[in-house]
Each structure stands twice: as C-alpha cells, then as structure tokens.
Amino acid sequence: MTITVIGTGFVGVVTAGVFAELGHQVYGLDVDQKKIASLNQGDLPFFEPELKELVLAGLQTKRLQFTTDYQVAIPDSQVIFVCVGTPSADSGAVDLTYVESALLEVAKYLKPEAIVVVKSTVPPGSFDHFAKIMQEVTKVPVALASAPEFLREGSAVSETRHPSRVVIGTTDDRVFTILRNLHQPLGAPILQISPASAQMGKYAANAYLATRITFINQIADLCQHNGADIEEVIKSMGFDPRIGNHFWYPGLGYGGSCFPKDVKELAYFSRTVGYGDNWFNSMQEYNEGRITRILDDVLVKVGRVDGQKIAVLGLSFKPNTDDTREAPALKVIPYLLQKGVAQIQVYDPQVQLSRTPFANHSEIDQVNQSTNIAQACQDADGIILLIEWPEIVEFEYSQIRNKSKNQWLLDARNQLDPQALSDAGFQYLSIGRTWNKSHE
Ligand code: UDX
Q1: What is the pLDDT of residues 246-301, one digit of tens each?
Q2: Alpha carbon of 306 to those of 65, 365, 395: distances in Å?
Q3: φ, ψ for residue 423 (rounded to 5)?
Q4: Phi-psi region of 50 (alpha: psi -120 to 50; beta: other; left: phi over 0)
Q5: Which of 239, 336, 340, 372 gives 20 to 30 Å between its CA and that of 302?
Q6: Of all residues in the chain, what percent are helix, strand and coil, respectively (each to 5)?
Q7: Whose CA is nearest to atom 16 of ligand 1?
Q8: Ligand 1: which atom is nearest the Cα of residue 257?
Q9: For ligand 1, atom 27, which residue shows the shortest CA distance?
Q10: Ligand 1 surroundings by CB, under 6 angstroms
C-alpha cells in the first residue's frame, strides 16, 4: 500500500519508518525543506533511540522517502496520516492551524477511496469541521478517521512497533477494515469506536496519567510534613492490583509536549461548556506552581544560594530525548538566577544549552555547559538532579564531594541512595523521602 505521513516530528517520522518496515511504500511529508533534505540523508532533526536505524533502513530499501510535495505524494496514497503539531493557544484552546492547512493541501490531490487518518491530538467533534473545509476543495468524498497516538518519547520506536492498542475512530466499516488490516501486523488489540470517542480517549488517557503523577506529588508533599516516606508509601499501595506499581514516581511535576498541553485543553473545554470549577484547572495550576514551591522549600533548608555555584543535571524533559518542551530546567535555571546564584553549570547527555530557549536569556553568561557530570559538579555548593538519565543516576557523587563546602544535593527524581550520599557528607534533599527519620 502507498501511504503518506504528514508532519516529520516524533510521531510522523516513527509512523513513516514503521510502516516502511512493514513493507509499505511511504512518503514522509513536511513543509520544512531543510528538514526533508536532512531526513533524505538519514539525518534526524531530533534524538530518539532506534529511529535513525529505522529511517536509514527505510531509505535503503527505497520504501521510505521524504518530500515537501503534496502533489507527488497524495495522488498516489491510499492512506494519509496527519501527524502535525497541535500547540496550545494562551487560553488553553488547541491551535488547529497546522492540521487544517495539511488537510486543505491533501484535499486538493485526494484520490477516490483514499482515507485520511488524523493522528494529531484534536478536540472531539473536530471532524465535522474538517470534513466541511476539505469538501469545499474536493469533489472526492472525504473519508476521515481518527487514530490517536499513544507513544512516549524516548521509546517511540518500540512503542510504535508494539503498541498497547490501536484505536480507530470511524463509523465507516470500509475505512475500519482497511485500517485494521494495515495495523494488524503490529499484533495489538484493535478497536473501532466513534471519532469523537477516539479523540476524547486520547485526552482522557493523558489527563489520567498526569493525574496519577499529580496525585503522588501531592502525597509526597504531605510526607514532608508527617514523617512518612513517599517511596515506602508507593510500595505499600502498589501491591493493590487496582492501583499498580507504575507510572507515578514523584518529581517536580509532569512536563513534555503532551501532558501540560492536553490537560490545559481539557480545562479550557470544561470551562467553555459550563464546568468552570473542574479538576483539570486545579491540576494544571498545581503542576505549574510546583517547581517554585519545591525550590522555595529547598532554599529554606539549605539557607542560601546567592553568590553560589550550582550544578543542574538534565535539561531535557525526561531521559532519552533531547526535547526540552516544558522541561523542569526551563523553570529551575531562571529561578536560581533570580535568587542571585553566581554560576550554574549544566550537564545533559543530549541537549545543547545553545539550542534551548536559554540561548537568549539575559543572564546566559552565568550558565555554562559542562561536558561531563564531574565537571558540572566540581566545587558546586549545590547539585540538582533534574532528569534521571541513566548516567546521571549511576554517577558516584561521593567522588566529587568537596569537603571544604557544605554541599547539598536535591534528588528531584528520588533516584539516589540517601544513606550513601549522607555518609559522603552531602545534605540530601528529595521529594517526600524522609528516610533519615524513618531509619533513625
Ligand atoms: C506522554 C504519554 O505517556 C504518551 O502516551 C502520549 O502519547 C504523549 O505524552 P511523553 O510526554 O513522551 O508521553 O512522556 P512520559 O514518559 O509520559 O512523561 C511525561 C511527563 O511525566 C514527564 O515530565 C515525566 O518526567 C513525568 N512523569 C512520568 C513523572 O513525573 N512520573 C512518572 O511516573 C512518569
């Protein structure tokens, strides 16, 4: 089958690569000529494990090619996936500009019986509008389906090869049969539901996962005040099969390109339909204010940071990606600068400081990138472990302990051994771990 995948972000490139791997002829399409030229050379505009190999294999077999030309790709294609971004406007409403312009281009060259599958996260109920604007451009009957994407950055390739489920939002049995056959080799359960349910299911899944994280963060905050240890609390709860022992490790709040945006959109949608007082508003507010609250608390515990040198470890929003969207570092670094920190040494295995929004920060001279963890931590008064990259977690911090200083270490992911760090002489700070009290 010939397939076009529009949008060459994480979802688009991975989807294109995996369908090429399954034996289809795939066009990856984007309006960004530079990106397309690089992709055709096998160069990715971002870091994602296993993806380069997947793209190179697709290019080599000639089953995968990248183009900016709708007129080449669309008339050939039986299935067209739309995987362009749907950013948030300030109000929280989703901005559908990219989806709409892709659909309008597709409509110009659509062949009869072709199916347009929207993978981009769009609000339930968008399809009437999409079909209407497309139908104004083409006489070919437009067949739209929704197939929300649930992959996580950092494990995007393996999760696309082995998805937990394939959700197909369509009421048209012909469309469902073609899409079911296309996805069948992935070996996942395939469900047919309405487009609106598929779209709502995507928002609800992300909001639910964000809720778990928010919930456990709130419990961790309470642990700071009552002598309980959050890691022990999690253990005690996780054995309950209704709860489970996964996806709720505490930290500085959820970030990334999906959770914050999707919760905001649900909050916005709730307000527009009369539910002004809704959980999503509260969750969003709590998550947004979390970093400042935690750092205020750290400041009280360590006494002062002005004039000091702090190491910040991890600039991406999570490990195994170079994506910095809604990364904690974007709030932590300005906070420290505002509190008068003299120097910040950052380290990240993939992210270059010059490619983050800090590049234009007025106090960027005070922020330096180190090439390794030891260099970042050298002579630091405080160390902040922001992201649990394996090498950051596995590093022996006792090796770089400077005995002439009262060094503190904030383990914002609760990944390190509190006893070992304490024995090494660090003031160990965490998110809701009261190990020193419970082990006394
Ligand atoms: C998420 C969803 O998991 C995925 O299904 C959807 O398609 C896109 O959004 P992603 O943003 O790539 O994926 O990352 P994820 O691993 O879910 O983490 C999101 C945020 O939550 C990160 O900031 C992460 O650090 C945080 N998180 C995650 C926690 O704080 N605790 C956890 O237990 C898990």
Answers
A1: 999 999 999 999 999 999 999 999 999 999 999 999 999 999 999 999 999 999 99
A2: 53, 16, 27
A3: -60, -35
A4: left
A5: 372
A6: 45, 15, 40
A7: 152
A8: 11
A9: 254
A10: 149-153, 206, 209, 213, 247-249, 251, 254-259, 317-318
